[in-house]
Design goal:
This is DUF3899 domain-containing protein. The protein is mainly alpha-helical. It has helices at residues 5-23, 27-68, 84-87, 90-116. It has one domain (2-116). The longest helix is centred in the middle third of the chain and has 42 residues, at 27-68. It is elongated. The model has no long low-confidence stretch (mean pLDDT 67).
Length: 117
């Protein structure tokens, strides 16, 4: 359940956004708000995958690796530090990068379509 809590929260917020937009009876706003929300969600995940969280965890884990590496425990000196940012799967990063670009372009197209009409 802990693994899926962020996805559930995202879906509940998305459902709330759609219901709120539908009650205002403006179909364009419903579509535009939904795609904007999804774009921001994907952008946040993409940025956290490639920059902030990966580097933060690299520094944190390196510090923990240095603290807990002692001569008293057998085998602890042979362990090597492996950065988290190298463990992130490239297909996941590419997926969120392309999803972010897709929703950004769809938002821009919706905005252009709305302004032209």
């Amino acid at each position: 359940m802990k693994k899926h809590i962020q996805g559930i929260a995202f879906l509940l917020q998305l459902i709330g956004l759609v219901l709120f937009s539908l009650t205002t009876s403006e179909s364009f706003l419903t579509l535009f708000n939904t795609t904007t929300y999804i774009f921001l969600f994907h952008l946040l995940i993409y940025l956290s995958l490639v920059t902030l969280h990966a580097r933060f965890f690299d520094g944190f884990l390196y510090g923990m690796h240095r603290v807990f590496r002692s001569k008293n425990r057998p085998g602890s000196m042979e362990t090597e530090f492996q950065p988290v940012s190298e463990k992130i799967k490239r297909p996941v990063v590419h997926f969120f990068k392309y999803q972010t670009l897709f929703f950004l372009l769809s938002n821009l197209l919706l905005l252009v379509f709305y302004l032209l009409n």
